[in-house]
Each structure stands twice: as structure tokens, then as C-alpha cells.
Amino acid sequence: MAKKVRDYSKLAGDILEAVGGEENIIKVSRCATRLRLVLKRSKPQAKEQVTSLPGVITVVENNGQFQVVIGQHVGEVYEAFASLVNMDMGDDDQSEKQGTIVNRVIATMSAVFAPFIYILAAAGILQGSLILINLFFSGFQETGTYEVLSFISWAPFTFLPIFIAMTAAKHFKANTYIAVACSAALVSPTWTAMAEQIASGETISFLGIALSETVYTSSVLPPLFLVWLLSYLEKFLNKNMNEVVRPLFVPLICMIVMVPLTILLIGPLSTLGANGIANGYNFLAENAPALAGAIIGSLWQVLVIFGVHWGVTPMVLANFDQYGRDSFQAYQTIAVIAQIGAVLGVVLKAKSQETKKVSVSAGITGIFGITEPAIYGVNLRFKKPFIFGCIAGAVGAITASFFNPYYFAYAGLPGPLTIVNGIDSAYPMSIWGIVIGSLIAIVLPVVLIQIFGFGEDTAQQAGSEALVEEQGQAGETAAADAKVNEEVVDAPFTGNVIPLAEVPDEVFSSGAMGKEVAIQPTENKLYAPFDGTVVMIAPTKHAIGLRSKTGIELLVHIGIDTVKLDGSPFNLHVEDGAVFKKGEILVEFDEEAIQSQGLETITPVIVTNAGAYEEVIIEDLKQSIFNQKLMTVVK
């Protein structure tokens, strides 16, 4: 659960320390809600450490990125983080060499579009507002006021290649001004006029090669590929050209090479590719609209979870460029609204004031088309709301599909505020389909949550101020339990309690890792000592980190130096992130196999965040018995 943060410098410093410092960072970027880090190596507990920081909603590791979801304050945290590290990591950008091609493409789309997505969103809202005004005041479209506001709203899309040039130059480490100069040539009115001449049948050639009629206003892939190739050409020229003439001749050669190359080859091919993908989607949407709606309505927010949603932007913009409309964003809007409906359902069902407060905040953010706070802060945290949201998104989008829904103005952040983008006199039923689908999307999850509840908190963080109650199970009165000041941790297995001084490892025997007790197990099963979540599993399976629903963090280290065994004696019954109930078997281990290697099976059981509590009281035992009280944590 994210707390309100004002000391952004401290949060940035804590994140930097948790991920291994500046020397472990390859690249830093951000999007609307996430600080995105590319790391040289992943630290085993970095995800848990960063997630537990006040102001962090959650951490997602995907596409070779360590994504810290912060929400609306990500800009301040990014600026503070940038001041702590050297943002220029040199010409050898390792991040571009890691991961699959798909991952690298998605990471590039995110880095390119995220910095100016709010500009496109603002322009889209202005276009929607003009649509709405014209609906009520038919003569407004003939006024000069409308014309001025209209060209303002279209300007970011008309000159989109220039925006892409600026962000892509930073991503690919090219000279920003050269990239802008080349992309500005693509949207030059002169070239647009030449393309119109070619389209009318006139032949215009460059060095004897006939030019195509492709225009580049509002285009995505041509300027993106231009800057990508420009980065290699520029590096080659800088490396091989005399430094005296370099400042003049590098931009000169880059422009006279890259602009014609784009007009002759890159532009037509990339535009053909983007239009081909768009046509493929349109074929599905026109011939099986219910299927297209079901897929987008149910799975769009899943793409958002993994940060791969930027990949559809070229396709959507290609639709607007070719046809002046797009159905993908109509279905996308319904998927967004469904997650808002799920949050609303939690607000109405929850008894915990803390849960209500977080849900209201996340829901307000969702109104503007930003669903990460709703997804991570509420819906995924309780699981059921996210599932109900996906179901409602599918049902709403399928219903809307029978009305031929389209957006007629691009929405940078589709959501409730952009529904008016579906109004057009040529498609009068479009807006009704979107409205009906949106109503279903917001009402259905509310109803489902009132009937089935919203589940248990699976992501409560250490040090949280509130105990989160179990919800949605008839007859339970967990709210009363949430007010107690003590929590019992049971023995995870049966065995002999060993004095810490006798543990043959100085790190454990000193108690440096936290409040602990050592047990020599007499059976080979490790049981869950409380209800909670698995937050860490060592790659060699010899250690497991657990977090109770109220935030107690427990590390169970099976044996001493058993990391040497490379996991062979251990059989896991759970995986990282799994939710468990007290008494469930978490791990089985082969005691004889451990001892045959000359290693001890003495197992430290450690409360690693004991400092967050008033006291940890360890029972005076000589033997531990599974399900017996081992320690009491006083809050």
C-alpha cells in the first residue's frame, strides 16, 4: 500500500541502495506511473525491499526491467533518482543487448512514448471536448474559436514524428537536434505537397529513384526507425571523422543520408508494416467483433501489469491515420472502466477504513485513464477484484461490439473522460455501444464483489499501519482480530531448540539478522507458521522468506551452509508469491542427504523486521512441536 511521500530524495536513495547502487544500474527511465530500471544483476531481495518502502505501490520485474510502480509522484522520484546517478552510461548500452527481441521492442516503445503520453492525452481530451460542444452547439464548428482550438488539438499528432525524435534520440543515444532536424523534414509542408503530386499521378524521383506518396504527419515507425539507424551512423561518423570538421559535417551527412533513405525505403516499408498489423486487427474486429471485444476487454489490463501495453500504439495511430477511426481504443476504454468498477466494489464492500481510503484514491486516478494504482494497490492485492474486472471488461466489450463502436479522436489515456471520442454522426450507434459497455463494465464488478466478496489481502507490506481484515467469507469477523496488538508465530516444524551460541555460523549465532530461534528438526517437513505470502525463495531452495498478513517477515534457513547442495535435498511445495494458510507444507527436505555431506540441519528461524515491532517474545522451549507457539510479536 503506497503512503503519501514528500521526501522523494530519500525514497530515490532507498531504491538506489536496495537495487545495488549506481554501479548495478545500466539504464533509468520512467513512464506515467513507473520508475523503470535496467540492472546488471538482480539482487534476490531487492523486489521485497523496494516494495516495502513507503510510497511504492509494488515492483514488477519484466522485460528485463525492474519496474517500481509509484503512481502520480513518479516524476518527482525520477528527478531525485536522476540526480543520484550518472544517467549517461556510455555508448555501449547493454540494455539493448539483453532479453528477447520482443522485450527490447516493448522497452523501446515504453521509453519513446511515456515521456509525452500526457501531451497526447491532453490533445485527445480537447478533441473530445470539441466533439461534445459541437453536439450541443451546431454553429460552433463555423467559428474562429473552434478552428483555433481544433488546430491546437491536432498539433501534437501532426508533428508526432518530432516528439518521437526527441525521446528516441535519448533512448538510442543519438544527437537530439540532428534527430529533430531529420524528422522535421518528414513533416515539412513541402514534402506533403510533393506526396500529393505523386498521389495524383505525377512522377518525382530522387537520384533516379521514384518516390512514393507516403506522408509522415502522425506517423510512428518511420521516425522511430530513422533515429535508430541515425544513432549508428552518427557513432560511425564521430569515431572516424576529424574533430575539427566533425561539428559541421556529422549533422550534414546525417541529414542528407537519413532523410532520403527514410523517404525512399524506411518510411514506405515501416508504414506498410504498421498498416498491415492494423489491417489484421481490423479484419478480426469487422468479421468477429465479439471475439475482438472479448480479447481486448479481458486482457488489456493484463498487458498493463507487465508494462507491454505500449506495443499497440503504432497500430492504433495507423488506424486513425488510415481511416480516421479506431475500435481498439473503444474496447480499451471499457477494460479500463471495468477496473474502476472493481475498485468501487471494494469501496462499497470493505469494512476497513484504510482499505476504503486506498480504494477511493486509486479509483480517482483511474478516472484519468491511469489504472496502475487501482490494479496494484487494490485489485491485484485482493485478486478477486482484478478477475471480476477482467470478466466485466469482456462482457462490456462484447456487448459494445454489436453497436460498431469506434473512437474518432485518439485518446492518449483511454478512460471515462474520453468516452465522448466515440461520437460521430456517420456512426450514430457507436457512442451508445461504448456507453452501454461502460455501464456494464462499472456495474458488473460491483455486483460480483457484493455477492462473492473481494478476497483476502495478499500483498500487505511490512510495517503497515493497519491490519487488513479478511473479506468476502460469510460469517467471519476478522475486523475484531485486526485490532489485537499481538500476533503468534507457531513453530514451523518439530525439533530440538538449540541455544544461539551453539549455531555453527557467526552470522546466525550473533543474532545480527534479527530476532531468532534455532531448531534442530526431527522431521523433514517445514510447515507454514501463520497465514501469509511467500516473498522469497533462494535459488538453491535452502531458505524461504515468509510474510504474515499483518507484515511479520520470517526467514527460515534450513541447515547451515546448505547453499552448497544446489537445491538437491529440497522439494518445494510453493513458489515465490504463493499465498498459504497456517499448517500447509511449504518445503520437504532430505535430512540424511544433508548430513551425508557433513552439513548441519540446524535451522535458524528469524524475524527479520523485528525492529518494526515493540517486542518479539520467544517462548522458553527445549523442544518445538509443529503448531505450538514459538514466539509472540508485540506491535
From TrEMBL:
Record-level GO BP terms: phosphoenolpyruvate-dependent sugar phosphotransferase system; trehalose transport
UniProt keyword Electron transport present: no
TM regions (residue ranges): 112-137, 149-169, 176-194, 214-233, 245-270, 290-318, 330-348, 360-379, 386-409, 429-452
Any GO CC annotation of this UniProt entry: plasma membrane
Keyword annotations of the record: Cell membrane, Kinase, Membrane, Phosphotransferase system, Sugar transport, Transferase, Transmembrane, Transmembrane helix, Transport
Positions of the catalytic residues: 31 (phosphocysteine intermediate)
Domain annotation PTS EIIA type-1: ranges: 505-609
GO MF annotations in UniProt: kinase activity; protein-N(PI)-phosphohistidine-sugar phosphotransferase activity; protein-phosphocysteine-trehalose phosphotransferase system transporter activity
Residues covered by the PTS EIIC type-1 domain: 107-464
Principal subcellular localization: membrane
Compartment(s): Cell membrane
Transmembrane is among the record's keywords: yes
Membrane topology designation: Multi-pass membrane protein
UniProt domain PTS EIIB type-1: residue ranges: 9-91
Coiled-coil regions, chain positions: none
Matching InterPro entries: Dup_hybrid_motif, Glu_permease_IIB, PTrfase_EIIB_Cys, PTS_EIIA_1_perm, PTS_EIIC, PTS_EIIC_1, PTS_IIABC_b_glu, PTS_IIB_1
Protein name: PTS system, beta-glucosides-specific IIC component
Organism, scientific name: Halobacillus aidingensis
